[in-house]
Amino acid sequence: MYVRRKTMNETVHVKVYLAGRCPRCNRYNEQLTYDYGIKPYQEVEKEMDNVNHKIKDISCKHCSTDFAPESLVYKETLTDVTLAQVAINYDNTLDPETSRLLKEAHDNRFEHFAKHEDAFWDGFVAYALQNWRDSINELQPHELLAGLHALDIPTNARTATQLRREVLNKVKTTEQKAKFWRSANHDYVYNQLLDIGAMGWHAESDAKQFGQLRTRYAVLNYPMEEVQERLRTDMIGKVVRKDRGDNAFLFKRIAQLSDDFSRLSKKLRDRYHQMQELRVEIDDKNKIIHELRQALKNERSNKNIVSRDPDDIRKIHELKSLVNELIEVKGEEVKEKKEAVIEETPIETESAQPAGKRSLEGKTIGIIGGNRSEQAEQITECNILTHGGADQDHEFDALLNESDELVILTKFVSHAAMWRAKAHAITEGKPIHYTKSINIHRILDEIK
Q1: Domain for residue 303, yes or no?
Q2: Distance CA 78, CA 5 (A)
Q3: ∠ CA(63), CA(65), CA(71), 5° rounding?
Q4: Considering only 3-17, 225-239, 269-283, which range has the smallest mean pLDDT?
Q5: Which of 79, 207, 278, 379 has the highest CB neighbour number within 10 Å of its CB?
């Protein structure tokens, strides 16, 4: 689509840009794709006939994402005016053979029009005579003056309204009207319709600039070769909305199909750009996956092999054994003072002991089970801490923390207290002993 100019010899500098919004950062971008140079607009129009703009991805200047453009933007840079913005229909791509035939028809438009020129003008005049007043109201002042000048009718009118009034009052006969109409529309037919060609028309904009009646007649009757009839069909639905007579239903149906096609094209364009956004999202996720894989690879290659301390290995096995034993315990713990059935019975110390007796001087021995506080006061060899083992209160915690070694009286302690003491001993690396004895002197003799 190209914007019409009243002055075809006006010097312009037209540039064409690929434009669209980045699917990643949603910033608007324009990228120059062609420069027509500084020259008269008429020469630019002729050059446009031979220029095909290649549609390619553009790179976002903000985030460097490559994406498909949404439109072609034509700008006149001398006056900083946007001449046109044409949506790129990715769903409407022509095959190479059809494109070649359309190009040939466009190049041959002058010869083809010459063969049908008289018929076109006769129909155009007849059409205007049927709607004379409305047709005159569509003419611009310079067109009205051209028609009056052809009939040698002088005028002192200063406004478009005064000119139209004079035409309606002074141009009376059919011959005068025919000559007036051809002269008034000479520029429209030859410098607009024919010079630009059907491939460059934009029916809706033309109807606003040149009038609904004239645009309608041009769309329906302009001489086109067969390969260009698709262009005519696309434009009919945009300019023929109401009609009377036998063709009314046909034109109405064409308009409906044209609207459906426009909606479908828009939907397809939206889907295409949604695919662009999904492509960017997938690229971002693939980049993250790649970075994670690389980080994992680096972590594996830089991982140091550490030898674990044998004592740590022993503790891990003991804790695992403790967990398995706890899982097997079902129901609530019975707090009665009865013998606990455990694998360690008869239980010996779990820590390796050297041969012979050892001295307990300076050590703190924690005895859990029963009431042994009176006997503990008689011991001078080491420090004795006792706890009944029925409750796991703060005194129980204090005994565990302050003791160097632990002794469990299996007949007088609850399961919960025994598991708690065993877990503490394993974690802290403290010796723990199990016995059925109740005399402290004997207990100390057993653990030496």
Answers
A1: no
A2: 15
A3: 110
A4: 3-17
A5: 207
